[in-house]
Structure formats: structure tokens, C-alpha cells
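Hello support,

Our group uses your service weekly, and this is the first time we've seen a run hang past the timeout. The protein is Nuclear transport factor 2 family protein. I'm not sure whether the cause is the sequence or the server load. Input pasted verbatim:
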Amino acid sequence: MHKLLLAIAVLLISTTMNAQTKSEKQVAEAVEALRKAMVDGSESALNNIAADGLSYGHSGGKVETKAEFVGTLASGKSDFVTIDLTDQTIQVSKDVAIVRHTLSAKTNDGGKPGEVHLKIMTVWQHQKGGWKMLARQAVKIN
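Update from on-call engineer: The timeout came from a worker crash unrelated to the input. Re-ran successfully.
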């Protein structure tokens, strides 16, 4: 009986330690909404998920404002055909979250098919009732 109780306690503790908090789940949902909006090129969805003061850094060094980020994707100048996110971690501290993941994508910028593989870090802030992307920086994978 004691072994059974011990096994149940260990299982509950390990499950609790691996479970996402409510905030982490909300941030993960916001990241997924961003991924979908980037593939769709949806201007309204992109405007909704990006904070007004967005700083969007590309792996090549270019940094865009919210208007530039949304405009580039909504116009199709930058066209993501697919985006896959892996190895994602989410760290929440009060109203700020840091998300890291690997992005693998197929692109069709200017009608030219391509692929990108990047490490991404985004900073999110809970504002206006939801999680908004405040900053993003990409680096090339060696």
C-alpha cells in the first residue's frame, strides 16, 4: 500500500512539474496565432498580435517596426508558405514572457521558393487583455 501511495505521489509531482501554467498556455496560444497569421499574411491578425512598440529583428540585422513587419507580410513581399516551430520553451514573469524556439519554414519571397532555419527569441507582454509580441530576434543556425 505504501509503495502504491509513493508511486502516485511521484507521478503527481512529476506531472505538476511538467504542466504548463495558465499564463504559459496563453502565451503558447499567442505564439500559434502569430505562426498562423504569418503564414496567412493576415493584416488584421498580425496587427492584433503585435504590440504597438514592436521591435522585430531579422537574422540579417534588419529591424522592423510594427507597421513594417505587418506591411511586409500582408503585402506578400515576405511570404511564408509553411512555418514549423520546434524545441519551444516559455518563461513567464508576471506580465512578460520570453519564448524561444527553432523556426523551419518554406518561403516564396518575390516568387522565389526558399527555406529558412532560424533560432528565434520573442518577448511578449500581457496588455489590453491578451499577450502581445513586443520584441523578436532571429539568429541563423550554424
